[in-house]
Task: inverse folding
């Protein structure tokens, strides 16, 4: 590798997720123009040597970039920056959510979107919207009562809020997330005692019912507060889980 390549690929020093750390480094270099459209990436061996990560990590990071359309591979020639590396659509793929820190970043994004959407939904919701939200809330209650994760039901309820804004762009944005926004692999329900699971379910139901009640009653400010409270508490729970995993 050249000196310039060494400057581009700085050694990654024990990030929470090595694959995400390498992918983010490469992505930043592409987006900044340090790696230009059509430029060939260094070989896997060269990246391993410069960054200090394993071949598996390198391959997973490159797979993430390919999935995002940022690089292409040519048989026998290696990987190249796409000629048009700016993605035409935003998406979150499963590999993006392999660490709690990544989930927390997505929750920050959701908070910005859903805070505004909840307020608009309180002002614009129709009777049909409220019926839809009630159906989704009932389905979530049932899933939680039966001891499930309720990921799909949770997603469907939150999406019904965005539909109630009467602005189709909100729903279309949320569709890029899918139920990845409720990552079941981190819920750890199987590690909870029966009492802990009961408290968890009650808390989730209470928070979602508060959101629905504010929107149903047309209380814009209360709807915004309720969604912010719910997502902030979700973030706090993930932070506690992260810290517990770090200390164990």
Result:
């Amino acid at each position: 590798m050249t000196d310039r390549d060494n400057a581009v690929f700085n050694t990654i020093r024990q990030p929470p997720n090595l694959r995400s750390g390498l992918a983010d480094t490469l992505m930043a270099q592409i987006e900044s123009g340090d790696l230009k459209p059509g430029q060939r990436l260094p070989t896997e061996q060269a990246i391993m040597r410069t960054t200090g990560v394993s071949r598996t990590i390198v391959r997973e990071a490159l797979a993430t970039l390919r999935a995002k359309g940022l690089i292409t591979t040519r048989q026998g020639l290696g990987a190249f920056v796409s000629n048009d590396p700016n993605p035409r659509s935003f998406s979150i793929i499963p590999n993006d959510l392999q660490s709690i820190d990544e989930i927390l970043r997505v929750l920050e994004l959701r908070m910005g979107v859903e805070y505004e959407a909840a307020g608009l939904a309180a002002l614009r919701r129709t009777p049909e919207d409220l019926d839809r939200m009630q159906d989704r809330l009932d389905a979530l209650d049932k899933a939680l009562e039966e001891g499930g994760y309720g990921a799909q039901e949770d997603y469907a309820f939150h999406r019904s809020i965005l539909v109630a804004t009467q602005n189709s762009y909100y729903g279309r944005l949320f569709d890029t997330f899918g139920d990845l926004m409720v990552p079941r692999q981190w819920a750890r329900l199987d590690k909870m005692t029966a009492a802990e699971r009961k408290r968890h379910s009650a808390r989730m139901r209470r928070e979602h019912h508060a959101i629905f009640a504010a929107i149903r009653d047309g209380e814009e400010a209360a709807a915004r507060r309720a969604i912010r409270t719910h997502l902030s508490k979700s973030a706090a729970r993930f932070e506690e889980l992260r810290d517990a995993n770090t200390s164990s």
About this structure: The longest strand covers residues 71-74. DSSP finds ten helices and two strands in the chain. The CA atoms of residues 69 and 88 lie 9 Å apart. The chain has two domains: 4-81, 100-246.
